[in-house]
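Input.
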Amino acid sequence: MKFFTVAVVLAFVAVAAAQDGGLNLSEEQKQKVHALGAECLKETGASEEAVRAVGKGDYSQVDGNVKCFAKCLQGKLGYFVDGKVNEPAVESSLGKLVGKEKIKAIQEKCNGVKGTDDCDTALLLHKCYATENASILV
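Output.
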């Protein structure tokens, strides 16, 4: 079965969706996202509480580890490669959820954001996508 998730973009979205059942993901998809999220938590030392908070739009607990969690999970999902968005991968998965034209419009607004490093950029991408289409977070 083809795997897709709502992340970015959403590194945090994917974890929140998989753990809280916010989107209609298959059990296989939920398990895969959960496993990838667990790997990234371990690799980055990010707080699970802080990651869940970001998934719900609360950035008050963000630190360098949370930013690197965003980079890690977006990378493992194929959404963030070599410091930039993998547009075809994002269009393929998120386009199925909110429509290809909507995703393309979001990408035009968001994909050029740059942070101080790749971890910061990954979190800024998440914030931009979430701001442009909060329904991705539902």
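The longest strand covers residues 80-81.
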